[in-house]
Amino acid sequence: MARAAFAVCLAAAAAQAGEERVPEPDGYRMEAFRAPVPATLRGATVVDTAAAHALWRAGETVFIDVLPRAVKPEGLPEGTLWRDRPRDSIPGAFWLPNVGYGALHPDMDARFRAALREATAGDLDRPLLFFCLDECWMSWNAAKRALREYGHSAVFWYPEGTDGWSWEDHPVERATPAEGF
User: Fold this and answer.
1) Structural domain count, the chain
2) Residue 99 forms part of a structural domain
């Protein structure tokens, strides 16, 4: 019985090792943001949950949550209730919703750039860790933009996001979007 279980584990590991990874695109992901992500982000350090937790505990890295947030539709009939969906995030993280799309409106781009400048006190070498949910391209896009367009040099990407964080039973707290978001 033990040999059979071991053989199944070996077969599963071999199958995973043989799976093709999603290739890292040259540009930004423009659609289908909840989908398998690459294992890499050129120029960034990709971290798993244990490494993200260690960075969080050390307190030197700025955590940036980029989970999108639905915008209240204009023109709702009077009396219509609108409730923002609550977001539980990694404690101390800055929630900058809607900055992970492949193309950003110039106003959003400026807000994203300004929020990172504020979060790092203008230090482009201050470590930043970007996350969202598991298999979410938003964090990949945002981390790439911080590296390639904004000049940040110490960028971490945590592809498992709050799904991986919560799975390990690490603490979360109710988040509110950063000012201006």
Assistant:
1) 1
2) yes
Residue 14 placed within a domain: no
Here the tokens at position 54 are 């260690």
Across the chain, where does the E strand assignment appear?
45-46, 62-65, 87-89, 94-95, 128-131, 155-158, 173-175
pLDDT of residue 20: 55
How far, in Å, CA of 168 to CA of 171, rounded? 9
Q: Domain limits at 120?
A: 38-175
7: pLDDT strictly greater than 90: no
pLDDT-derived band at 172 (thresholds 50, 70, 90) equals very high
Q: Decide if 21 is inside a domain.
A: no
Residue type, 16: Q
Q: What is the mean pLDDT of the chain?
A: 89
In the three-class reduction of DSSP (H, G, I as helix; E, B as strand; rest coil), residue 108 is classed as helix
The amino acid at 77:
P
pTM for the model stands at 0.86
In a domain, 27, yes or no: no
